[in-house]
Amino acid sequence: MKTKKIIKTLSATILALFALLTLFLSSAVIFDWFAIRAKEGNYVLFIVWVNFICSILYLFAAYGFLKSKKWTFWVLIVALGILIIAFIALLLYVNNGGLHEAKTIKAMVFRMLVTLSFSLIAFFSIKKIVQ
Fold it and tell me: Transmembrane segments in this chain: where (predicted)?
């Protein structure tokens, strides 16, 4: 029982930090804070917006982990779905000659794997989901 609480607390902390970092970086590009937009090179704006939206969903999920809410899993699944759709759109964009950075594709794969991992942690650690 205590192990699950530690897992949920640690997951909430890591997810919240990931969310805040994502929120800062994506909003810095969107609103051009600290002239970050110029440093990013060929960023793909719709991917930046997807990351911004997912960062907000991650914050809700971090709260859900702390409070052991069963909807935490579903929030993360929605974020994963959004990321998958955006990744497919990104691949289409790239295949049609769209300007991008190679790191964008790697970052999207990483973000999808992180979101999937937290979804699985939520599914197995919040008792109300698995009965």
Answer: 44-66, 73-93, 105-126
